[in-house]
Design brief:
- It is a single chain.
- With 128 residues, the protein is mostly helical.
- The chain folds into 3 domains: 31 residues, no CATH class; 53 residues, no CATH class; 40 residues.
- The longest helix has 39 residues.
């Protein structure tokens, strides 16, 4: 008499009519061997070339990622890997902070330049 498996209604390995557990699951062969994971690092900001500064994908690639075929996803991931990979979240946050400081300094610099040009105009008028 074959022992019954407690998890399924089928005999255990070695018993008559048992399914060998050494065989791979049928879906394993159907999966792509390419890396099709989403490379998003949640740092979505785009440069002048319309590429994400976190994962280096184009805006169109980001927008249509779920609908792209696996071969295209693998090619995009290979391109990113060849470039050196994505930006880590920590580095991306640091870059955002630095960008914010730069914007503040640029605004302050513009104010100072305006004040300087006003001062130069008053000096020129006083000299006349």
């Amino acid at each position: 008499m074959a022992k019954a498996c407690i998890f399924e209604n089928r005999p255990q390995d070695g018993a008559a009519g048992a399914f060998p557990s050494a065989l791979p699951h049928p879906s394993y062969g159907a999966m792509s061997t390419h890396d099709t994971r989403n490379p998003c690092t949640k740092l979505c900001r785009y440069d002048a070339a319309d590429r994400c500064m976190g994962c280096f994908r184009t805006r169109a690639e980001v927008r249509h990622w779920k609908r792209l075929p696996d071969e295209t996803k693998a090619a995009i991931n290979a391109r990113i890997a060849a470039r050196g990979g994505t930006v880590s979240k920590k580095d991306g946050k640091r870059a955002k902070k630095l960008d914010k400081k730069i914007r503040k300094l640029e605004a302050k610099l513009a104010t100072l330049r305006a004040r300087r040009s006003d001062l130069e105009e008053t000096v020129v008028k006083a000299a006349e």
